[in-house]
Structures are given as C-alpha cells and as structure tokens.
Structure prediction request, 445 residues.
Amino acid sequence: MNRFIEIFEKNKSNLISDNSDYLKILRLEAIENFKKTGIPTTKNEEWLHTDIQKVIKPEYAFSLEPPKIEYNIDDFFKCDVPQLDTYMFVIINGWFPQQLKLINEYENGLIVGSIAEAQKKYPEIVEKYFSKYIDNANDGLSALNTALAKDGIFIYVPENLILEKPIQLVYIVYSTEDIIVQHRNLIVAEKNSQAKIVICDHSLHFNKSFTNAASEIFVGENAKVDYYKIQNSSNNTSQNTITQVQQERSSKFLSNVVTLHGGFIRNNLNVKQNAEGCQTNLYGLYLSDKEQHIDNHTYIEHAFPNCTSNEKYKGILDDKSEGVFRGKILVQPDAQKTTAYQANNNLLLSDSASVNSEPQLEIYADDVKCSHGATIGQLDQDALFYLRSRGISNEEARMMLMHTYASEIINKINIEPLKERMNDLVSKRLRGELSRCNHCFIKCC
Prediction:
C-alpha cells in the first residue's frame, strides 16, 4: 500500500495539474480513502477466496504517461470476427493513442474518445456522471483507480439515438517490463437511447502485469445498453475490474462476460436499479485450466418496485484452476413486485479444480418472486454413455457436452457475428487450443 501512496505523492502535480477543481478534489479525497482502506486482504469477507495482494508487486512500473512508442494500430490489433462492423477504438496501457484524434464526434451525436480530453472539452457532462456511482469510500481499489487513473474511454450517447453499430473497445497491455495499468471509463446512455458495447481485453507481452480498471455506466430513462466483455489475455496477466451501473426508469441493461484466458481475474459488477420498471440481465461464462484463478462478484440492488433481474453464470474448470462466484441480490423495503432470479453452475473436469459458489438473496419486501441456486458437478455420465453408444468417441462426446453447456451463455449475445465467433473460440478453448481473436506480431504465451 505504501508504494501506491508514494507514487501518488511523487506524481501529485502531474496527476492533478490539468484537472478541474472537481476532479482535483476527487483525486485528493480518493487517496485519503485509500490510505484508510488499502488493498483488500482475505480477512475481508468479500475477498475471502481471492488473495489479490499476491499479484500486486511493489517493483512493478506504473503507466502514468502515454506509451512512448511509434506504432500503427493495425500492427497491434486487427479484429478477425467476420462481418463485425463496429466503431472500434484501441487503448494501450490504459491510454487512448495520442497519435489519433482524441475526441471523435459523429454526425448522429455520438461522442467517443479519451476521458482525459473529455474532461477538458465536456466538463459539464463528465462532472455530472464521473465518480457518482463508484464506491471510493469503502472500496480501496476503486479509490486507487480514482486517485491514479490518468486516461481511459469516454462514451456519450445522446437522447433518442439508437446506434446501429456496436462500439468496440480493445484494451491492450504492452510493455517490456512488469507493469501496473489503470484506466477509467465513463459510458453515458441518455434517455431513449440504445447502444451495444463490446470490450476486448488482450495482452501482447510476456511480462507480468496488473490491471485495475474501473467503469461507470449510466443507463437513462427508457434506454438500453448491452455490455459484452471478452477476456482473452495471457496467463501472466492479473486483472481487477470494477463496473458500476446506474439504471433509471424503464431502462434495460444486459451484461455478458466471457473469460477465456487470464492468470488472475477478479470481476466486480454492481448494478443499482434507481427507478421503477428496470430490467437487468447478467450472464457470464468462465473457462479455466492450469493454475488460473477467476472470481466473479456481482451485486444487484432493487431499490424501487416493479423491476426484474435475471442472472446466470457458468464455469468449466480443469487442472488446478480455481473459480469463485459470489452474487448478491438486495431487495429494499420499497421494492415490491420485484422478480429476481440468480443461478451459478459449475463443471469440474479434474479432482484438483475447485470452485467456491455463494449466491445470496437479501429481501426486505414481502411481495416478490425471488430464487437463487448453485450447482457444482461433473459431466453427465448418462449423456456421455448415450453419445458413446452412438459411435462417438469419448473425447468428442465430452467436447459436445461441454460446448452445449457453455452455449446457453454464448447464445445470450445479441450481436450475431460476435456470437458465432465466441462459439468458435469457446470450442477451440475447450479442445485446448490457445486461440486468440486478434492477429498480432507477438505470439502470447
């Protein structure tokens, strides 16, 4: 913890020099909160099964300046999803590429660009939403991000705009030394708007890295946001992602997180339904082997009546990998007529793989329909026997059952080319092929 405080004090003038008074105060308050809370330990119930301290090394370098390398974006990333037409942006080591246009304004009113630049150009929008929903007071890693993150993505979808194309954000870690990366994202979908966001996490290096990323998503009245996150980094990478979602009246939010690769991953997804008529759908699929550790923490707060939520996460774990699922649904006293479902299902392919599953309901209203559950097991032997009796080999039968199991989550992707590509990547991943959905000049381990 002292290392982070030293970095802040040493770079204080650089961190706050070009910030508005609002953002300066936020940074200073955040570092004071971090001094009180620090990096969570396994003594914290929320982190009981995940020791994040072991992946944050004091000798890691910090990415507090834009990467000083000359490159062509096409050299780093070229999406090979057939027919996937998107607004695509690449972020390297937490920075929007300096050689590109930092703010992109489209004729339809869409704005996408560097959040550091947006703070200067659209201070009234940024200050209205930035750091309004994230928990800097009690979450040390959120506070750390607020204090030290210099750049990231800003997306603004104005009222009544229905985007026909998804927005694709590609986050790449590329460094010749072990590095800590922090970026901050702000996504605002105003009243009656619709947007689909695709996040792709990649690494293009053999070095170790730790990414602490925070995103705030505002879904306005009657707006709809689909949020897809594909994690496909090397096993030398460690990640903590914090995603805070605020939903307004009659809004719809869908999240689908697919974890294919990554050595250590903790995903924190928190949703607050802040008015009546909200719909929330959270889906997740995690595939792990070797000694990977994948932890998904979700939290949905039903604060108003007549809202629904549906949540399903599935895992397939092999070798000595570890999985954690902790999902909590809170139904406040005024949230009558709430409908909420939550499920976590896991397949263990080896005796050494393990998972800790803790679905939770906390209900203070009496007129609700809520349920939760978890399963941990192995492949259905009866189904396996049936397939083998039809002349299918044991290995192929196992692949078929696992892919069918995973496809329930993949089929919740509402972008057809992306769904097809994810089906292909999941199939290859289950067969042990180290497949990437990017072409790069560095072959990742």
Notes: The first strand starts at residue 61 and ends at 62. Residues 434-445 have pLDDT under 50 and may be disordered. Residues 308 and 339 are 5 Å apart (CA to CA).
